[in-house]
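URGENT: need a sanity check before tomorrow's submission.

F., can you look over the histidine kinase record below? I want to be sure the sequence and structure line up before it goes out.
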Amino acid sequence: MTPPAKGPPTFLPRTLLWQTFASLAIMLILAFSAWSEIVRHFELEPRARDLAQTVTSIVNLTRTALINADADRRLELLIDLTAMEGIRVYPAEATDRITPLPDTRAMELLTRDVRRELGPQTRFAGSWEELEGFWVSFKLDPSDTDEYWVMLPAERIQRPRPLEWLGWGVAIMAFALLGAYLIVFRIGRPLRQIAEAARLIGHGKQPAPLPEDGPGEIAEVASAFNQMAGDLAQLESDRAVILAGVSHDLRTPLARLRLGVEMTGAPSGDIRAMVSDIEEMDRVIGQFVDYGRNDDAPPEPVVLAPLIEDIVSADRLRGHAVDTHLHPNATVLAQTLPLRRALRNLIDNAERYGKPGQTLSVSTEAVNGSWKIALRDEGPGIPEDQLERLKRPFVRLDEARGNTQGAGLGLAIVDRFARAHGGRFDLSNHPDGGLVASITLPATKPPAARSG
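Structure tokens as predicted:
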């Protein structure tokens, strides 16, 4: 069986669970980011107005305190403001080393509102003489030439505890994503159960009924699947009965017909021709039965060398030349009888369509944790574009192989066997001529030798 073509590599998750979770996570993150931006945008102006009122009040109170205080007690007043309120006042000089405030929209709104209250001559700084803070200039009287700096601690201006707000935001996002995961998991689990049950049906097994609880849509799908599985099981049972009847009711008259032909006393050439036709009819019936058969036996370790040698020994007794190149430890996990039927079909196909006097070659080869059983004939081969088509039921390339016998099920039986055992069946033309049919099956350890 040709493996499905793989698409281009992608970093996106491939399962429904993680695709849906990733979509919900992206939407939640975008929604949270948009919400944060909206809150920040509409919060800036009210907060700037409140801070500007606070700054204006502090500057006005400081100015009033300095104006009304005795000249000899102003130094004591400045010390008290620094110690108790964290407010520092210094005289402004032309040589002051200052740095500007951060160039942000929040600071722009704040300074605009403060200038509106204190006057356009108000200056601002982010540091004065390397002392960090929020610095605002003022005069005791608009007509004075002397100017002062008042410093407010930066924590009074900046947004309080940004890391704490970020932590709460991350916690909220984590809870939202956890909820999204639980929702998607609740949807994905029934789908995985249905997929597993479908795989069991595909391998010819009857799965346990799916639970029909949960959300209405999921329960409805599970109920429909259980009904389908029951109908398929009934069809399988009816098919087995029909196949058993066909095998018995047709092969018994054929056996009597062959006996009657051999006892007619007709010329030996006519008898051989009629017996050959009867044998071909019996072989076609056998192919139909094999194709529709559903073996329930569990797979077991099968050592290939003795099995293949036993199968080809009958061909050698009939005068066919068969070379074998078998690894003594080649062991696969398979059902023994279906494996024998598959190999028998390949050998019969090679003998029927190969050239007279050919030598068949059977070999085993280890391939990536599997064992490959290859059979080569010396026939005319098959057109490359028809190799896959030959695996389908009832397909025969008579014009290429020169033989009209068979029902066209032999290779389809082999392909069905390989797929049912987790392997693959391949056809290819050998470079030196002839067709190579190969079955690749999972490797396993040889069975332990029995003692005693």
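My own read: The longest helix spans residues 16-68. The radius of gyration is 45 Å. If you see anything odd, call me.
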